[in-house]
Amino acid sequence: MADILVVDDEPNIRRMLSSLLVAEGHAAAQAATGEEALELLAQNTPDVVLLDLALPGADGLEVLAQIRNREPAVPVIMMSGRATLADAVRATKIGAFHFIEKPLSPEAVLLTVGSAVELRRARELSRTLLRELGAGERLVGSSSVMQQTRTLIEQVAMSDARVLITGESGTGKELAATALHELSGRASGPFVRVNSAAIPRELVESEMFGHERGSFTGAHERRLGKFELANGGTLFLDEVADLGMEAQSKLLRALESGEVERVGAQHPVVVDVRVVAATNRDLDAERGAGRFRDDLFYRLNVIRLHMPPLRERSEDIPELIDHFMMRLQRRHGLESPALEADALRRMCNYTWPGNVRELANVCERLAILHSGRSVSGRDIDKVLAPPSGGGDDNMAHLPFAVRLDAFERRLIDDAIADARGNIADAARRLDTDRANLYRRMRRLGMDR
What we know:
Blueprint: E1 3-7, H1 11-23, E2 27-31, H2 34-43, E3 48-52, H3 60-70, E4 76-80, H4 85-94, E5 98-101, H5 106-133, H6 144-157, E6 163-166, H7 173-182, E7 191-195, H8 204-209, E8 210-211, E9 223-224, H9 226-229, E10 234-238, H10 245-257, E11 259-260, E12 269-270, E13 274-279, H11 283-288, H12 294-300, E14 303-306, H13 317-332, E15 338-339, H14 341-349, H15 355-369, E16 374-375, H16 377-384, H17 400-418, H18 423-429, H19 434-443
Parallel strand pairs: 1-2, 1-3, 3-4, 4-5, 6-13, 6-14, 7-10, 10-13, 15-16
Antiparallel strand pairs: 8-9, 11-12
Helix pairs in contact: 2-3, 3-4, 6-7, 13-15, 14-16, 17-18
């Protein structure tokens, strides 16, 4: 159920729309003027607004502009029986979600409202995930290289320039993208992540650009793509080098035109999205081998941000350990054992092929499995180089599910380390596909 605000000066239309929405399980409030709508908006924020263009007093476009200033995350659907193309273009530029013409079709109204509700919920989920990550807890480290990285992020965040984030797996590329979003003028909009490597190639177009109902087998309802869900915010294209050539071509067209076309749609949709891309591959080598388009590379590589591997900033390891241990205690109530000097020295001297992600998993493993008050250097050796048999006496007291997750996490950690951070290679070593490996990593909290 969603809260819908219906704004129209014609009582019959307000009643008809309200009855239609209530019959679908929504709650509907009514306003006859723009001023009345803004008063209701100040009292309670709706999920979606249905707004007539021709209103007494302040017209629909003026009201739309005020709604966008007050509540930028609320999708606004414009309605009109006498709209011109110029009106539609201006409404889109101001930030209208969609424009529907009168006389209103119940099917069109419900379909558009459903898409708007989906967008609203995606934005709420995006903000919730960002809050759970915790503001200011992303790019931890006081080394000079991390200070330079943060400075660059602050410099480019407020622009809409596209950013290409490079670096090995586990170095924090998604955290850098999140920081770019939160420091930008789009922070109140959605942050939508696309893991290009985890999408089956035959579904890339549908995932990125959406589809219409009946456009292909299994398309039982209309679905918004990631570009539309990210409208007004930031779209993070992770593992962008894993996109096939056909998907790269369609992505390039979307970046050049600012429009996307759902599979099976008759007309394109204008989107306002800042694109941040990331890869752990050498795109110069990929371009040389003909696996990545030159023109797409130049579109994405406006600003280059490189995330350094952990072995190049080992002075940050003590600070990162404190950060991860405090986070485990705050989120899960896990008491953190103290690290003896020899244990800390060994962790600082380790090369960390899985980078910060591997360090976070080791900290979690220590917090869950270590039963003593302190951790010795010998304990660290066991964690960093576990016996091949996988046995661990410290796990005997733990629930089966925890032990199973720990074993699976260790297998994945080892495969990623053996593959030197290459997820595709790690998937091959585990005899699975990348999409399944990413799903398992996401479930285990290993995908950040």
